[in-house]
Write a structure and sequence with these properties.
- The complex is a heterodimer of chains A (274) and B (77).
- Chain A has five helices and 19 strands.
- Chain A is α+β, with helices and mostly antiparallel strands and 274 residues long.
- In chain A, strands 4, 7, 9, 10, 11, 12, 16, 17 and 18 form a nine-stranded mixed sheet that branches. A six-stranded antiparallel sheet of chain A has the order 3-19-8-13-14-15, covered by helices on one side. Chain A has a two-stranded antiparallel sheet with strand order 1-2.
- Chain B is globular.
- The chains are: A alpha+beta (274), B alpha+beta (77).
- Chains A and B meet through strand 4 and strand 5 of A and strand 2, strand 3 and helix 2 of B.
Chain lengths: 274, 77
């Protein structure tokens, strides 16, 4: 048997046996998962490799700072950042890890991304995203940090479905003005600024609302997943199941659409799409 | 309804923020009366067996009543 793989065009891995043939960034991620004590199935590797290729083809890979594909069904695997060895997550107690994604208990659980908003992000070019598999609502944040414990100052946050049946994106603001109706938290929610203070909120690649933020600044805090880091205190815990999340630079509408397509293809390959 | 382990102040100070695996640490929350609770998933409990943290699994359990969440910030007009 010849133990090598071939990339055909941009269609991922052909003959991936033996571990060869993967994109170098995907392979580096696989190596980090293994070094952490996690394991990935062949399907998870194929899907993740294609995700990297698709993001590169769409010109959005360079915009990524932290990408959590939530594969491997363990804390060790799901904590790893697909983009780089920086911003490795750490989970609190209270998470459930499965092949379908990661689920916090909605009471005390969150993941610390290790990504400090003020030192890593730019007000006019930032995005947050989350792929949610269940439909729940409550006083819950999906991603976020703020300066104050009231989550009202220098807020960077994504909310897929609040108890008010609304979704929000806030990037270094606090007015929560970029919001729209949300009666289903399932799917890929993506919020971004891209070259201005206009905040754009997308669901499954479709732009739902845009508005100008009353920008203040970023909080000098790490962004949490599953809650908001409110001045160092996690609050507004959620019980939503995550199958993907990312933090990075801003994307335009075409890139946002392509990002959704890439993530949805990834989830479909893993048979966990919603 | 959430059932969690009840911790004394001393036990809380002993576990809060401590790592029990390389990528997981304990996070306790206070209930409406200020009593500390620790919630563990099934895999958390498995991870603690035969470790220095196994004593947590013997703590009393009770229903958790969360404090009232802070008010949601006002919206822009």
């Amino acid at each position: 048997m010849i133990g090598f793989g071939l990339n055909i065009g941009n269609r991922g891995v052909f003959g991936a046996g033996g571990g060869g043939g993967f994109d170098a960034d995907a392979q580096a991620f696989f190596d980090r998962v293994t070094a952490a004590g996690g394991t990935l199935s062949a399907t998870e590797k194929t899907a993740t490799n294609q995700l990297v290729l698709d993001m590169k083809s769409a010109g959005i890979w360079t915009a990524m700072r932290a990408v959590y594909p939530m594969v491997g069904a363990s804390a060790a695997a799901c904590a790893q950042n697909l983009k780089s060895s920086s911003f490795t997550g750490t989970f609190t107690s209270g998470w459930t890890f499965a092949s379908t994604g990661v689920t916090p208990n909605g009471t005390s659980a969150f993941m610390d991304s290790g990504l400090n908003a003020s030192t890593n992000l730019t007000l006019t070019s930032t995005h947050l995203s989350a792929y949610v598999r269940n439909n729940t609502k409550g006083s819950q944040y999906d991603l976020g940090c703020s300066t104050d414990i009231g989550a009202g100052l220098n807020v960077t946050a994504l909310i897929t479905r609040y108890i008010t049946d609304a979704m929000y994106i806030e990037i270094g603001g606090g007015g929560y003005g970029t919001q729209t109706l949300s009666i289903n938290s399932q799917g890929f929610t993506f919020g971004t600024t891209n070259g201005s203070r206009t905040q754009n909120l997308y669901k499954n690649g479709v732009l739902l609302v845009s508005s100008i933020s009353s920008a203040n600044n970023f909080a000098n805090r790490n962004i949490y997943l599953g809650a908001i880091n409110a001045g160092g205190t996690p609050i507004f815990f959620t019980d939503k199941q995550y199958a993907f999340s990312s933090i990075g630079d801003g994307l335009n509408s075409t890139q946002a659409s392509n990002f959704y397509t890439a993530v949805q293809t990834f989830q479909t390959t893993l048979s966990r799409q919603v | 309804m959430s059932i969690g382990y009840i911790l004394t102040e001393s036990e809380y100070a002993q576990v809060q923020g401590q790592y029990y695996t390389e990528y997981q640490f304990f996070n306790c929350v206070a209930d409406i009366n200020g009593v500390w609770y620790l919630f563990l998933s099934t895999e958390d409990k498995i991870a603690l067996v035969n470790t220095q943290w196994a004593w947590i699994l013997d703590l009393p359990e009770a229903e958790y009543v969360p404090p009232t969440p802070p008010p949601f910030p006002p919206l822009e007009n």
